[in-house]
C-alpha cells in the first residue's frame, strides 16, 4: 500500500523516523487541498491550493502505527488520493482551521519562509 506524507513525516522532518521501513516512491504535488500550521505538525484540508508531499510504499503494520498516531483522537481521517504511483492514503484534518496559519506555498519544509 502507499501513503502520502506532507509534513512531519517527510524526509528530514521531526517524525520522519516513522517512514524508516517505507520505500520512498517520489515527490508529488496534490491539488485541491490547503496546508495549515498546527505548531509541530501540519494539517491538510480540502481547498483551492496545492500541497507538496512525498509518496511511500509501506506495509500494513506501519499503516496501523500511523493510524494510531493520527486517527485515534479523531483529528485526522484517511482519504484515498490518486498519485502517479497509484492510489495512496493521506491523512486529512477533521477539525476547523479558522484562526490557524495557512501555508499558502503548500510546503511544510519551507514553512519558516512564510513567517
Automatic annotation (TrEMBL):
The keyword Nucleus does not apply. Keywords: Transferase. InterPro entries: AIG2-like_dom, GGCT-like, GGCT-like_sf. Residues 3-109 form the Gamma-glutamylcyclotransferase AIG2-like domain. It comes from the Bacteria. One of its GO terms (molecular function) is transferase activity. Pfam families: GGACT (PF06094). Belongs to the gamma-glutamylcyclotransferase family. This is Gamma-glutamylcyclotransferase family protein YtfP. The lineage of its organism: Bacteria, Pseudomonadati, Pseudomonadota, Gammaproteobacteria, Enterobacterales.
Amino acid at each position: 500500500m502507499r501513503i502520502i506524507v506532507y509534513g512531519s513525516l517527510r524526509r528530514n522532518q521531526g517524525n520522519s523516523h516513522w517512514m524508516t521501513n517505507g520505500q520512498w516512491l517520489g515527490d508529488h504535488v496534490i491539488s485541491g487541498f490547503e496546508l495549515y500550521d498546527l505548531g509541530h505538525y501540519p494539517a491538510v484540508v480540502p481547498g483551492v491550493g496545492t500541497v507538496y508531499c512525498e509518496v511511500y510504499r509501506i506495509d500494513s503494520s506501519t499503516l496501523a502505527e500511523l493510524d494510531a498516531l493520527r486517527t485515534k483522537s479523531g483529528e485526522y481521517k484517511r482519504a484515498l488520493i490518486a498519485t502517479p504511483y497509484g492510489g495512496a492514503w493521506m491523512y486529512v484534518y477533521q477539525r476547523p482551521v479558522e484562526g490557524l496559519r495557512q501555508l499558502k506555498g503548500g510546503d511544510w519544509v519551507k514553512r519558516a519562509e512564510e513567517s
